[in-house]
Amino acid sequence: MAYRTAVATPKYVPARTLALPTPDAIRDAQHATGQYPGPVWAVKSWSLAEADHAVPIPPSATGKYPSPVWSGAPMLPGDRLLTDPALRRKDPGYSDETGSDADEAHDSAEPEGSTALDNREIYRIVREVAVVDSGDDLYSAVMAQDPFGLCFGLTLFTQASGHLGAVLSLMLARDPEQFRALFGPNATALLAVTNASAGSRLEPVGGENLSAASWMDRFRQAGAYTPFQAAQNEQAIEGQFRPMLHLAAELGLTSDRGLAMAFDRVVTCGLGAGMRWVIAAAGPLRTEQQRQGALEDLGYASLPEFQADTPWLPQNGVFGPETHAAMAGALRRLGDRCMPSCEDLMGRLVSAAAGPAKTRLMRLRHSAKLQDVYYRF
């Protein structure tokens, strides 16, 4: 059956972006909320066709974060690391994982959000996802795994993806002297290798792979240093979580639990593959009839016309994951109550998953640490 709504409407006006706090508001709230004290919400259009892992988004003014974030990071009560080693394993299909079909959309109302999604809230979500990977070791967690190389820290930032190099760069910016003291005479080479192009990030440093015991010991020591813990939080928030946020919210994953489940896929698969999986598994516009009906309801004659009115989308005439999420978000703002709720979307994610992915998502689906808080977007 074609996807239709009952009310005709003029052309959809593209979604507004998140309201950005003023510099004064950031300064006033910094110590109380953990917000970054500078303009770090630089807007960037993300194309999942072009990026399979997140990179840090530098603030437009200075290019670096001007002071520590989460100095003395809050230690939330956490579960002990789950014993099944499969749960710590990164998905081998880092760039190519796709999802399964899900059921048709259900008629379900969406709870109205009332909570601001600040960095403290994001950290709470990140920490609950990361407990399976970093466990009690938290910032000092290290493991080596093919084909990802060294995995380190809060979300096990991987060497192959470039996240390890990004977090090392943030550490250097926070305390260059301590960085060189901890990583020794090969500290510069370490940065060069881990921030190299994709094919060169797994090269040895100082004649040894980063999986060598001597390197792992250095990383454990670095994870115990508070400013470097803050750098890890920054990378997890700005390099992994925030780049997925727009697509997840457009799709309808607007609660802490829903965002945690999407973030789990990004942590294990990478930004591109993770969000492709999420949208393939839970996206509501699954047939050509549904998509054509949605275009008509939004007042568009064609998909390229919708994309042209939504500048952050790829302008390619293809119904890809970004376009799927954007169209779902447009229909929600239109007031369409046939769109699946966040609760429905989470159920679809669990249904589409298998093996360790399903176990991880089921854990988050029932975690008492997540409070089913809905956020304003």
Structure explained in plain terms:
This protein has helices spanning 23-33, 119-134, 163-174, 176-183, 187-194, 213-223, 226-251, 256-269, 271-282, 288-298, 303-308, 321-333, 342-352, 355-365; strands at residues 142-145, 149-152, 157-158. The protein is mainly alpha-helical and 377 residues long. The chain has one domain (39-283, 340-365). A hairpin with a 4-residue loop joins β2 (149-152) and β3. α8 packs antiparallel against α14. The radius of gyration is 21 Å and the shape is elongated. The two termini are 31 Å apart.
Query: Can you tell me the overall shape?
Result: elongated
Task: Give the tally of structural domains.
Answer: 1
Average pLDDT metric: 77
Low-confidence stretches: 1-89, 91-110
Describe the main β-sheet briefly: 3 strands, antiparallel
Oligomer status: single chain
Question: Could you spell the SSE succession in H and E letters?
Answer: HHEEEHHHHHHHHHHHH
Within the largest sheet, what's the order of strands? 1-2-3
Helix content: 40-55%
What's the total helix number? 14
How much strand? under 5%
- What's the count of strands? 3
Our Rg estimate from Cα atoms comes to 21 Å
- Quickly give the structural class: mainly alpha
The N- to C-terminal Cα distance equals 31 Å
